[in-house]
Amino acid sequence: MVYGDYHRHCLQLFLRETAIDLEDFKKHLREYESNENLNLSDYSSHDGFDMLVGEINNHLNKYTMQLRVRKRTAVELDGKTYWVLVNTKSDPVAQQATTLKEWQVRLFKQFCDMIVSSELGVITSTQAISTAQRMRQVSATEVEDLLEQLCKEKWLYEDDEKNGRFTVGIRTLVELEALLQEFGAFECPVTSQISVATNKYRRWLKQKNFDLPSRLNNRQQEQPEEDDGSEESDENESETEKKQADNSQTEPVSNCRSKKRRSS
User: Fold this and answer.
1) CB pairs under 8 A, 24+ apart, for 186-190?
2) How far apart are CA 147 and CA 171, in angstroms?
3) How far apart (Å, rounded) are the C-alpha atoms in residues 55 and 49?
4) What is this structure's pTM?
């Protein structure tokens, strides 16, 4: 299809959402078809969306813009395939996350370092608050608000149970590979992408009959499983994270989740 109004409309969607998965795109497609009385069935499949993104990227290349749309399956998070609008400048966080203050960017990078270095590929809200309060004078509520914002903007990802465990988000996985690698993230033996060893990633890798890099196995020989109905595994994971939180704190922080999260 010749680059036209629909491509421009989709580019605006990427600029607004930054990252979008196929199901969300299909929903958007149906709404646009209905409003504009169009037939866009060629774009309703995985391959069709790839074709659309290719046409948008070709247009961006033509005008030498520093934006590209990249595809990545987030096996570390929810298993969905995302298409992410990427700023190709040297520091995407500093250039795209204009809503973040300088100290918030520094703190976010510290969170990423902690996530990559952790055994479970996550940090807890307690760890985040403790770390922030060591770096500057800030309240627990301000840190919780920052975590919420980072999740909303897809820099971080809170696990499906919304229980205060965070890992890197899809934007970080796609845009900040060099930063994650600097912190010690590894190259996935299946996809050759920089990855973080969350439990979901470990299970996925096991299904592919691949092993983690030896240095990660040395950190922890056996990881507890998530969402398998086993109370014992949940207790093991909680105990491990409690130890991490204890090691990271200079003073106890209680009731760190006291403020109810606002819905996005």
Assistant:
1) 186/212, 186/213, 186/215, 186/216, 189/213
2) 15
3) 10
4) 0.75
Residue 241 corresponds to which tokens in the numbers above?
């994270």
Q: How far is CA 76 from the centre of its chain?
A: 8
3 state SS of 78: coil
pLDDT values of the chain reduced to their tens digit, one per residue, 264 residues? 678 888 888 888 888 888 998 888 888 878 887 777 767 777 767 788 888 889 889 888 877 667 888 999 999 999 999 999 887 765 555 555 467 888 999 999 999 999 999 988 999 999 999 999 999 999 999 999 999 999 999 999 998 777 889 999 999 999 999 999 999 999 999 999 999 999 999 999 999 999 887 766 555 544 444 444 444 444 454 455 444 444 444 333 333 344 444 444
- The whole-angstrom separation of Cα 61 and Cα 42 is 23
* C-alpha–C-alpha distance, residues 230 and 241, integer Å: 17
CA distance 87 to 101: 19
The residues, any chain, with a CB within 8 Å of residue 15's CB and separated by 6 or more, are: 85
Coil, helix or strand for 21? strand
Distance from C-alpha of 67 to C-alpha of 88, rounded to nearest angstrom? 6
Spatial distance between the Cα atoms of 186 and 201, rounded to a whole number of angstroms: 12
Q: Determine the Cα–Cα distance for residues 218 and 215; give it in Å rounded to an integer.
A: 5
47, 53 in Cβ contact below 8 A? no
Structure tokens at 7: 């491509």
Place of tokens 């169009």: 38
